Structure formats: structure tokens, C-alpha cells
Amino acid sequence: MPLGERMESVDQARFWKDTIPLRYEYTAGLAGEKFLRGLQEGRLLASRCPKCGTKYMPPKAYCVACYVRIGTFSEVGPVGTVTALAESYVGFDGSRLARPVMFGYITFKGTSGGLVHRVSGKGLAVGSSVSPRFKPKSMRKGSLLDIEEFRVVRG
User: Fold this and answer.
1) Which residue segment(s) compose the domain that 81 sits in?
2) By percentage, how much of the chain surpasses pLDDT 70?
3) How far is CA 102 from CA 115, 117, 143, 151, in A?
4) Is the bond preceding 78 in cis, omega lying within 30 degrees of 0?
């Protein structure tokens, strides 16, 4: 049917099945990349607003309060505090786990925000001090999973 010509009935409609191969790549952004590279090196990095001084974990590229661009990063921790806990009996694939996995929201002194990650250790509770246990350096890929878990710190 020529372009612009009106269809008189549905019988004139034509279609075909096909696919369009699309490939998406998402970047972590400037602050995210800095954070992930820090993890690969075994360090926890936060960003710091040059105007108000707020430190963000994980790092942000712009201050939420001032709307100022952030380009300063510094190491935090490694000891953090568990501020919330959740126990999961279901795996990421939907299967029932033989043993539950504990996840915690970990905050770091002097920062805004925190990280959700696996947590373990004797006496684990809200308020526990924890530190990251990183994978061996040769196995790190620049991912949050470069941290195997946060373990309770004795002290």
C-alpha cells in the first residue's frame, strides 16, 4: 500500500515478525566508577560536598542539599554500624535457602547514606560494629560483590 493511502479494511494490513538487535551499556557515572574502583582496591570511598561538607556513601556526583558538583572523594570506615537487619529465607533465584542469609544496612561515621550487604558474626544485632571482608585482590572486579560480607568486629 503506498504511503499516505488510507486502508479500507483490516485485510489490507501487512506485518512481519523480526527482531532488532539492541545492545545496552550503562555506566556507573563518575562518582559510581570512583566508588567501584575503590572497592577493587579494597577501599570504601565517599564523596564530599565542597560547599556544605556533607559526605555521601555511596558517593554522589552532586550534593543533594546544595546542588553543587562534587569531585572530592575520601576513604571512610572500614568499620561501620549496622542500623537495620533483614533475614532472607529465599535466594535471588526464588528458591528456598537451606540457611537464612542476613542483610544489613551499614552506615559510616560522618556520612550520609550507607550500604546494604550481607552481614554475619557472633552477636550480630542493630548497633553492631562491622567491617568489610573483601575477596582476594586477584578476584575483585570493581563490583559491590568484591565485598564478600561485613563481619562483626570485636572490640
Assistant:
1) 29-152
2) 89
3) 14, 8, 20, 11
4) yes
Q: Model confidence over 103-129: pLDDT tens digits?
A: 999 999 999 999 999 999 999 999 999
Is 84 within the bounds of a domain?
yes
- Letter string b/e over residues 14-28, b meaning 16 or more CB atoms within 10 A of that residue's CB: eeeeeeeeeeeeeee
Q: Is residue 16 part of a domain?
A: no
34: left (phi over 0), alpha (psi -120 to 50) or beta: alpha
CB-neighbour burial class of residue 43 (10 A; exposed 0-12, middle 13-18, buried 19+)? middle
Nearest-CA neighbor of 45 among 147, 126, 138? 147
pTM here is 0.78
